[in-house]
């Protein structure tokens, strides 16, 4: 048994707002090279009003998974469902979907047109979707919700006249103006000063409290996940390797990869785990556990002592299921749970 849980999970009372099932995204290789398996079998659920953090190193497939969930990339296999219905990829269906699910990018300077005023930047979504109401009132309400008050003071300002935190609030207002049910925030505070990061995270939490907004926060920063998420999904080389409530995963991580990511946080108190080498090429994913070539537990002999070293090198743990139950795709963690 390679997928474990700390105990029986409570039965789900409602269907997830957004879910992915057996999702795969591959990109063809050049000149006959093998295809890159950027997302290699992912199940992920996001409930109404829930904040899920998707964490992992650069290149692990986080952003590709987010783009697939947004409908920006059509999956090679598997399905995305929103509100219980499969995502359709026709232009009209995607336009309607993107009104309900909005993207917030990490670099507000790159996502805001320097020639557009704040008013035009926020109103753009309304115009694309043919909004028939009071545009000025909608823009003002979105800016106010994003913490830019009084909103009229920002209408005619340009991005270069704003601070980094204010620009990120404009980006968030541009997403909020369409009154979405879920936002996908890709490294939403990565480009901000430490003093501003907390303000933006507090804003996202307040939006969840006030609007019932759901969010998928894509980040490499486990500290950010701790501060904002209800649940965390740790991704490595195209697959989720550990998931569960954020307090449980980040205080008692079971996968060696999660342990390594946590060990470099200053507040962890543990000696940092230095992983050998770089993540493998997604076009050449190794056999067995995809982490085994870098795994500190296998390298130290602990997996051998637990009797699972051969399985680590030869048997691929199964895809973790969606839902909120704590799970880990690790032969060694499973052996420890059973002993």
TrEMBL record:
KW Nucleotide-binding (keyword) present? yes
- A GO molecular function for this record? ATP binding
Show the taxonomic lineage. Bacteria, Bacillati, Actinomycetota, Actinomycetes, Kitasatosporales
Please name the SUPFAM superfamilies in this protein's record.
P-loop containing nucleoside triphosphate hydrolases
Indicate the transmembrane segments per the record.
none
UniProt cross-references to Pfam families, sorted A to Z? ABC_tran, oligo_HPY
The record's CDD domains line, in alphabetical order, gives:
ABC_NikE_OppD_transporters
**The protein, known as:** ABC transporter ATP-binding protein
List each copy of the ABC transporter domain by range: 23-262
NCBIfam families xref list: oligo_HPY
- Assigned protein family: Belongs to the ABC transporter superfamily.
Going by the UniProt record, its keywords in alphabetical order are: ATP-binding, Nucleotide-binding, Transport
PANTHER family from the UniProt entry: D,D-DIPEPTIDE TRANSPORT ATP-BINDING PROTEIN DDPF-RELATED, TRANSPORT ATP-BINDING PROTEIN
Q: Which InterPro entries match?
A: AAA+_ATPase (IPR003593), ABC_transp_ATP-bind (IPR050319), ABC_transporter-like_ATP-bd (IPR003439), ABC_transporter-like_CS (IPR017871), Oligopep_ABC_C (IPR013563), P-loop_NTPase (IPR027417)
